[in-house]
């Protein structure tokens, strides 16, 4: 069946005129007439009653139009689907994240990404940074956000540092240091401290920071996640140095965050498979993550004090 005949039939049925139909499908009226006649011959069915210049569709034509409209709706759906694939890829994005980024930050990223790419399914896995590298190396995830990169899968994993987030001092409500604009490392001397667990990469970074400054803390509690650290600080167990990407979600619950001097930074790494290009969806998500990190870096960078006379 000639698609042009179907197009001509549909145009005549919708306009009621061969002349207008010819204009709408960019052809001539005699060509429309020939196409309709050819369609009637193919279908062995009369589609129009002709009386001079007047065309009246038969009952068969009205019934046939229903199926033709379904056909065109299907073509429209195919076109929209192709457009979505071109813009968004397959429609599913698989990401993995370190626990330090797996709460509020990743939720904000997914929400903003969904605004940019509506209808895309996002699968999120939370694992330690070493496992994240394995997930990317095996291409089980499209990208990952890590807080440290070991480089153990250097041939299969591309690593990019996205940001260095300035660490913050976490205080419980009403703490004696809460009114200070900046907390000095020396203020932690003999203070009860809530720490990440041993062998955690961020724990090692914080320990080295205080050891280099010869500050001795009272290590009261060790736990695996920054979110747990924040909860324990809020309850008054002790102080801590935290990644503000996690801690900012606890400020509304009473956690106090203060700049720390000298500064300590927590890196954020983007991991992606090195043997295949990033999908359109992965690129869009990377853009969102970069935007959010830029906003957070600005938020957590202390503003210089303005001297007044």
From TrEMBL:
One of its GO terms (biological process) is positive regulation of gene expression. Belongs to the LysR transcriptional regulatory family. This is LysR family transcriptional regulator. SUPFAM superfamilies: Periplasmic binding protein-like II, Winged helix' DNA-binding domain. It comes from Pollutimonas nitritireducens. Coiled coil: none annotated. The keyword Nucleotide-binding does not apply. The keyword Transcription regulation applies. Keywords: DNA-binding, Transcription, Transcription regulation. Residues 1-58 form the HTH lysR-type domain. One of its GO terms (molecular function) is DNA-binding transcription factor activity. InterPro entries: LysR_HTH_N (IPR000847), LysR_subst-bd (IPR005119), WH-like_DNA-bd_sf (IPR036388), WH_DNA-bd_sf (IPR036390).
């Amino acid at each position: 069946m000639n698609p042009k005949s179907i197009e001509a039939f549909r145009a005549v049925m919708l306009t009621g005129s061969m002349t207008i139909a010819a204009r709408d499908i960019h052809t001539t009226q005699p060509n429309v007439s020939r196409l309709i006649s050819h369609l009637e011959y193919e279908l062995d069915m009369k589609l129009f009653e002709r009386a001079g210049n007047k065309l009246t569709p038969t009952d068969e034509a009205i019934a046939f139009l229903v199926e033709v409209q379904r056909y065109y709706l299907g073509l429209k759906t195919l076109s929209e689907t192709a457009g979505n694939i071109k813009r968004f890829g397959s429609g599913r994005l698989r990401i993995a994240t370190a626990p330090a980024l797996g709460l509020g930050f990743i939720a904000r990223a997914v929400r903003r990404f969904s605004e940019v790419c509506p209808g895309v399914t996002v699968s999120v896995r939370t694992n330690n940074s070493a496992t994240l590298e394995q997930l990317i190396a095996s291409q089980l995830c499209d990208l990952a956000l890590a807080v440290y990169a070991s480089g153990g899968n250097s041939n299969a994993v591309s690593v990019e540092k996205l940001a260095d987030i300035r660490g913050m001092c976490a205080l419980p409500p009403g703490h004696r240091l809460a009114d200070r604009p900046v907390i000095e490392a020396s203020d932690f001397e003999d203070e009860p401290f809530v720490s990440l667990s041993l062998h955690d990469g961020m724990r090692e970074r914080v320990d080295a920071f205080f050891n280099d400054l010869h500050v001795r803390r009272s290590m009261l509690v060790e736990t695996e996640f920054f979110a747990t650290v924040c909860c324990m600080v809020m309850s008054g167990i002790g102080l801590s140095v935290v990644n503000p990407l996690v801690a900012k979600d606890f400020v509304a619950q009473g956690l106090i965050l203060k700049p720390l001097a000298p500064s300590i930074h927590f890196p954020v790494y983007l991991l992606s498979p090195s043997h295949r290009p990033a999908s359109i969806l992965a690129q869009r998500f990377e853009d969102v993550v970069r935007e959010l990190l830029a906003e957070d870096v600005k938020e957590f960078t202390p503003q210089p004090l303005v001297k007044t006379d």
